[in-house]
Design goal:
Layout: H1 3-13, E1 17-20, H2 38-50, E2 56-58, H3 62-65, H4 68-85, E3 90-97, H5 101-114, E4 119-122, H6 128-135, E5 141-147, H7 153-156, E6 160-161, E7 164-165, H8 166-174, E8 183-187, H9 195-201, E9 207-209, H10 219-226, E10 233-237, H11 239-242, H12 250-273
Parallel strand pairs: 1-2, 1-10, 2-3, 3-4, 4-5, 5-8, 8-9, 9-10
Antiparallel strand pairs: 6-7
Helix pairs in contact: 2-4, 2-12, 5-6
């Protein structure tokens, strides 16, 4: 999927919502556990209920890998369902991969060719040769961990090296890599005050933003400091939407929560464009 196609979906739906499909067998409605593949059935119901309100879905692969081969099969069925029914939606494999070049090439093939995701999250710690194999794929996107929303982000990411915070060095350096136009970046909503500085380095890149809602991030503040001329944001919400109810009405309640966010986004788009 091209960046322009993502922009067109944002404009069409008046939404820049990304829904995290982090299915947990201990949290999904009990009646689904009687089915052959409860994880896929849960995801399918969420997708059917919300696809017109979001522009992206983001399965975190840990929630599938935890269940072995059955979990991986659920993931494959989920991505196949999205690609077949809603090919206009941008898909993110939240896998946080990152290894030496030949291993990264295999990871890239797994997510881009076998599973046919549009993008994958990648850790930058091992540098250029661990990321460029992902960037080599045409119309696929690599989403680099830049400034995350967790408390431990301050352990390393904001430390200064030669007078510059490490996360800034990571972002600036990544711009020099081959096919860097295929890069997006993870920036946590709980770090809203950093968006202005980040936009000075990468004014045109898309940012994947976790941490709104449950982790305390403000959607308005993220947009105020992080939005660019094409919006340039994908705001992720997982638990608040997919676990809005544990009853038979879980899909409808998920839709209601997604609609709240979409409505707020539509208002923000109207406000910032006026």
């Amino acid at each position: 999927m091209t960046t322009q196609e993502i922009i067109e979906q944002i404009q069409l739906k008046k939404s820049f919502l990304c829904i995290g499909l982090d299915a947990d067998l201990t949290k999904i409605p009990q009646h689904l556990l009687e089915l052959e593949d409860p994880i896929f059935e849960f995801n399918k119901a969420i997708i059917d209920a919300t696809h017109d309100l979001c522009v992206s879905y983001k399965p975190n692969t840990a929630f599938y890998e935890a269940y072995g081969i059955k979990g991986w099969q659920s993931l494959q069925k989920t991505i196949n369902y999205i690609n077949e029914k809603h090919p206009e939606i941008f898909t993110i494999a939240d896998a946080k991969r990152g290894d030496i070049g030949n291993t990264s090439s295999m990871y890239a093939k797994a997510f881009f060719e076998d599973l046919n995701f549009d993008s994958v999250t990648v850790a930058p710690y091992m540098g250029k040769d661990s990321v460029e194999p992902f960037l080599a794929f045409q119309n696929k996107h690599t989403i680099l961990l830049a400034l995350t929303s967790n408390e431990g982000a301050f352990d390393f990411q904001t430390l200064e090296t030669n007078g510059t915070e490490l996360y800034k060095t990571v972002i600036e350096t990544s711009k020099q890599w081959n096919n860097s136009e295929n890069l997006m970046y993870v920036v946590g909503a709980t770090k809203a005050e950093y968006f202005t500085e980040i936009r000075k380095i990468i004014p045109n890149s898309f940012l994947l933003v976790p941490g709104v809602g449950a982790q305390g991030g403000s959607l308005y503040d993220v947009c105020k400091y992080g939005m660019n001329d094409t919006v340039g944001l994908l705001i992720n919400s997982s638990r608040a939407i997919i676990y809005a109810s544990k009853g038979n009405d879980f899909a409808q309640k998920a839709r209601e929560e997604a609609m709240k966010m979409q409505n707020e986004m539509e208002t923000i788009l109207s406000t910032f464009s006026s």
